[in-house]
User: What shape does this take?
Amino acid sequence: MSEIDFSAAIQTDNRQAGATVSKPIESMVQVNPFDTAPAKAKFLAYEAAIESMLEKANKHQVVDDKTNMEAVEAATQAKKLFNEIEKLRKALTEDSRKYTTAINNLSKVYTPKLKEIENIFKAQISSYAHKVEMKRREDERKAQEEAARFQEKLNKEAKAKNVEPVRVPKPVLPTKPEPTRTESGSASIRKVWTWKEVDISKVPAEYLMLDRVKINKAVKAGIREIDGIEIYEESQTVLRA
Assistant: This one.
């Protein structure tokens, strides 16, 4: 199987790249630095080779030394092409990655403090909302007790007059608080179910998760027996291009 010259796919014409535009009208045209068309053209140069390699890979069968050699050759060529595309990707994104990193570092000076401010006030708002809810429940309890006493009084009067007593409707106070609105925005309370660990030994097995990182370290360190886990050896192909 012949070697494919991948580097030729990304070669550019230096003379064309270094040419300057002399026409005033063209110099006034703004270039979009985020236009992916030039980069797409570079990647498209690989497309035919990749499709051809993929087609051959799907048809190929390793049945003897010869076909095994062919598979190794094709796989390492694919790995070379992968490395070339990764190199191109990194080259094309280097400036944008540096810019993104710089902008992120600038914003990180302020965003943690703003998030802290937000969390402080959210905690205060949630605490106040809890107090309001507790008061609402207490008011509802008192209203229900008052309604029960009033119903009992009506029942006694109705019994004395030998008539059907009037039924007092059960008092129910509003359960959903209205959002607090300001010129800047609003805050509303949303109730969600959550959880916290109390006793890990009592948690059912279906809610537990294996520590794969710890197990991998143990196996690499030479551990060959762990209760409930099968440790075995398998063959893995390592390609060097």
Summary: The longest strand covers residues 180-181.
